[in-house]
Amino acid sequence: MEISSDELDKELIEDLKEENPDKLSKLVEEGSGKDLKFLLKNMGRLPDEFDGEPFIKLLDSEEEDLRYHAVKNVGRLKDDKYLGEMKERFEKEDSTEVRSEIISTIGRMRSEKAKPFLVDLLEHKNPEIVLQAVRALYAFKKEPEIREKLESMINHENEVVRKVIRKDFFPDDESIERHTEYPEFMENKMVQSDVRKVLDDVPDNSIHLTFTSPPYYNARDYSIYKSYEEYLDFLEEVFEEVHRVTKKGRYMIVNTSPVLMPRVGRNYSSNRYPIPFDLHERLTDNGWEFIDEIIWLKPEASAVHRNAGFVQHRKPLAYKPNARTEYLMVYRKDTTKLLDWNINQYSDQDIEESKVEGEYESSNVWEIAPSNDKEHSAVFPEELCEKVIKFYSMKNDLVFDPFAGTGTLGKSALKNSRKFFMTEIEEDYIQRAKEKLNPAPLDSGSQPNFQNLEEFKTDAKANQE
Ligand SMILES: C[S@@+](CC[C@H](N)C(=O)[O-])C[C@H]1O[C@@H](n2cnc3c(N)ncnc32)[C@H](O)[C@@H]1O
After folding, report:
1. How far is the C-alpha of 59 from the C-alpha of 63, rounded, in Å?
2. From residue 391, how far is each of 253, 266, 321 by CA, in Å?
3. Beta-carbon contacts of residue 119 (< 8 Å; ≥ 6 apart)
């Protein structure tokens, strides 16, 4: 039976597999060019008795694509008689993709004979190869020696390897918490205090979403720290605690931007502090997984004018752009669970009612005008809070702002059928928040409740009993 190029299609390959596998094998052996590639890519599952020698002959092909698909087809045979050839090809192979496929093919053999080779690969310097070897060894993970070896890789130097081992060998407990619930005593509450003192009494895994704009480093009169280091230490301490009280897999969004400290005199230069960048590593070191950076773009007119000099003199080096942006750095509390797990904790009705309908921000640049407040110089625009709440929380969730100022986040939470928890140190801002949050929308659940630290501690203690 001669087969011309035009006749070669998937259906024919399937028919040959059933009726004349030797013919199919021969076609591979004699094939070339486009037809050979088509064949190799469309072999699908192969019958047990299929002759793999034609694939082996292709392992030395000049074309990476052919070698890759030849290896893949050997994998379909799941036969350890090809182990020697696979190991040999692995040593000669330059392409990481083909090498990874070789390991996967060896893994599919599920052969005792392959074990020592795969175990050796766990020490390979290329993390992709290590990961393939880990996966290939899963077939033996019931054997104590292999299991121990794989579990010990939780300390591997590569972060992706550590993540895979954590997910597969040390998964978060399914019953970690009742994910949709939160301690009732925190609902719609604003506490006047240093946030650190309040967090001491907040139970683990209570919060669904945190959105906050921390005090700026000495950029405004309400925030005075001895040094930039002390300022970063302070934020790190707060966000480490926020991590503890956040539910697994849920988000924290921190709004900051670099700040400029004006020069102390004509003979000195000004200092610019890159807060989002310096804070970032401290957050990821504490178990926050970096997810996204969103740019909050403000209208040109609202930016502090910094190039008045340049517009005249036009000298290079002295160029200073007007800063129209701030960052919304998006982090997620680390977990071995996928996002779908978080979503599936909610009822179908809650998911339906939480859907973000209509227009939405499709990029990471959000153009929003800043907001003014008669009492506070750096309030969130409501539009910004609303977007964050809608994109990063579900209906009836508890959203938290540790540096709440005038309570804009709380107002937006109530408007969008969420509950709030907030802390703020300054009395004047609490007063302003009372004005903003009263009257609350009718369907807010409990009415906004303003407490001092002592009152909050009493409630927290009663909650424990
Ligand atoms: C940038 S403002 C937040 C404004 C807020 N997003 C709004 O819409 O009004 C930062 C707030 O953090 C407060 N703050 C500073 N240190 C604090 C601390 N240790 N505990 C609680 N609040 C603090 C400041 O008083 C200030 O109101």
Report:
1. 9
2. 11, 46, 31
3. 133, 137, 146, 149
Q: Is the peptide bond before 203 cis (omega within 30 degrees of 0)?
A: no
Could you give the C-alpha distances from 238 to 234, 378, 444, in angstroms and in order? 6, 20, 28
Distance CA 351, CA 176 (A): 21
> CB within 6 Å of ligand 1 — which residues?
194-195, 213, 215, 222-223, 376, 378-380, 403-406, 408, 423-426, 429
Q: How do beta strands 189-192 and 419-424 pair? A: parallel
Q: Is the pTM of this model over 0.90?
A: no
pLDDT digits (tens, 9 = 90+) for 245-290: 999 999 999 999 999 887 878 888 888 899 999 999 999 999 999 9
Token couple for 76: 């379909």
Confidence of residue 23 (pLDDT cuts 50, 70, 90): confident
Of 183, 328, 344, 198, the residue nearest 251 (C-alpha):
328
Q: Could you tell me the distance, in angstroms and rounded to a whole number, from the CA of residue 238 to the centre of ligand 1?
A: 12
The CA dihedral of 110, 113, 116, 120, to the nearest 10 degrees, is -70
Q: What are phi and psi of 296, to 5 degrees?
A: -95, 110
Instruction: Tell me how far the alpha carbon of residue 403 lies from the centroid of ligand 1, in angstroms.
Output: 4
For 11-116, strand residue ranges (E) read: none
Q: Catalogue all structural domains in the chain, each as residue range(s) with its CATH number.
A: 5-169 (1.25.10.10), 184-260+270-464 (3.40.50.150)
What pLDDT does residue 5 have? 59
Distance CA 59, CA 86 (A): 9
